[in-house]
Amino acid sequence: VRLYLTEVQTMADRMRADTERHNRLVASDAYRLSADPTQVYVPPAAWGAVPHLNFAPLENALARLEDAAGAYDEAVVEAVSGGGPDGDAARRVNALLRGMEQRLTRPEGLPRRPWFRHQIYAPGFWTGYGVKTLPGVREGIEQREWEEVALFVGEIAAALDRVSEGLEEARAILN
Prior knowledge:
This protein is mainly alpha-helical and about 180 residues long. The protein is built from six helices and two strands, in the order ααααββαα.
């Protein structure tokens, strides 16, 4: 998930730089000056500014997930080196782990496809079956839907927090 977050942050930064460059060219009349005078020319419009997006909730949730995963890994190593957890503890931990993927879903689904609920990956809306990671954020950036990006930063952060809670609960059972 860390890689996916870095990708969407980089995408937003690149879009901001590209938008600023495009708008400077529009303002300087560069497109008209470079156009073929024998052809009909329609100047491009300026693009709306790309805001500085707040990824802090997602960064914080990811840090918590990394900590929870590390603590869970340590608890597993400790439990296994001590002969393994008792049968009841193993069943409870396995039940938690089986439901972990469900914690990454959102009942309302994704924008434009409410039937797809996973928040970490999904088939792209415009790419057919091409996968999109962090789809609510990534597609929001691609479509310049800034409110959608803000909503899904929070939704994905909440999903990661749910996974962290599950890992913390599993670790507590093992300890």
